[in-house]
Specification:
The protein has nine helices and eleven strands. It is of the alpha/beta class. The protein has a single domain, classed as Arginase, Chain A, CATH 3.40.800.20. A nine-stranded mixed sheet has the order 2-3-1-6-11-10-7-8-9, sandwiched between helices. The longest helix is centred in the middle third of the chain and has 20 residues.
């Protein structure tokens, strides 16, 4: 098979921002990344661009895929709420703390879904891809939003693959358990959900592992050494036992030390990880020879997001 360079999937819409100041999912999360890869701004006028070893692609809207996971009533609720908002006006859906809707939210969330599905399609064809998106998705359930998440990007991409008879392992590296993704995986025998996050941190889940879910927890302020030890001891056997056709990564970078410094009080915790953890994760996945893709979840300090994404492309800041 001919070598295919890793693909970055991004839409300039993700830099639009009228969210209130109290929201953590503001466009500033991505600003440093865009500065480090300035040519991706060409996606404003071009469908794809290439520069060196990085190939960037602009996705289409994923609105047609929403019903793969979400209920019609919920989809319509989000769409109508956004359409009825005026410019600069925002709404907190279902009184969910910190999760806001603005006029652009529905369209932006649809493109986030489209980016995730596009990444899945390329992984299926043997090209690893990273969908750099806003808003994140792993806390979104079939009929409700939560934790800054509107539509569950990784679940929709996984369901797209599962309907093509692909067996999918979801690896969630976010500091917080992706409870929306967990609820989906628990009902699907051809999907396995693996999460490595912080213990006793919202939305900490006490349930025992099922046949296709595995929740691993580490204490606050965990550093690289302990995290990597746990990753190798628990993830590698899971991959070997489940034998997925494709791996989907919910790539949360709120585990970085910079996020711990900035948001410890907000999150009531955090890890102290460096880029080495994510370099090792991609190395583990490369060695399996199993196709994989990633979708951005958390990570709120721009340095955390930029550093984490660039490790996927084997670049250092």
């Amino acid at each position: 098979m001919n070598y295919k360079p890793p693909l970055l999937i991004y839409h300039p819409l993700f830099m639009q921002d009228t969210l209130p100041e109290e929201s953590l999912d503001r466009a500033g999360r991505l600003e440093l990344l865009v500065e480090d890869i300035p040519f991706i701004q060409q996606l404003l006028t071009q469908a794809e661009v290439r520069e060196g070893e990085i190939h960037a692609l602009r996705p289409q809207s994923g609105e047609a895929y929403l019903s793969l996971f979400h209920t019609p009533r919920y989809i319509q609720e989000i769409k109508e709420t956004c359409e009825n908002l005026r410019n600069q006006e925002y709404s907190s859906l279902n009184n969910t703390a910190g999760t806001f809707l603005v006029k652009e939210s529905y369209v932006m969330a649809c493109y986030a879904v489209g980016a995730a599905v596009e990444a899945a399609k390329h992984a299926k064809q043997g090209q690893k891809a990273f969908a750099v998106v806003r808003p994140p998705g792993h806390h979104a359930h079939a009929d409700k939003s939560d934790g800054f998440c509107i539509f569950n990007n990784i679940v929709i991409a996984t369901e797209y693959l599962q309907r093509q008879n692909e067996k999918v392992l979801i690896i969630d590296t976010d500091l917080h358990v992706g409870d929306g993704t967990l609820s989906y995986a628990a009902e699907n025998n051809n999907v396995f959900y693996y999460s490595l996050g912080q213990q006793q941190l919202w939305p900490f889940i006490h349930q025992a592992d099922s046949n296709n879910t595995q929740l691993e927890f580490l204490p606050e302020s965990t550093t690289d050494e302990k995290y990597l030890q746990t990753l190798k001891e628990t993830l590698i056997p899971t991959i070997q036992q489940f034998k997925p056709d494709i791996i989907a990564v919910s790539a949360g970078f709120d585990t970085f030390a910079m996020d711990y410094v900035d948001y410890r009080d907000v999150f009531q915790g955090g890890f102290c990880l460096s880029h080495k953890v994510y370099q090792e994760l991609w190395s583990i996945l490369d060695k399996t020879l199993i196709p994989y893709f990633a979708v951005l979840e958390g990570g709120y300090n721009p340095i955390s997001v930029c550093t984490g994404v660039m490790t996927f492309f084997d670049k250092k800041r």
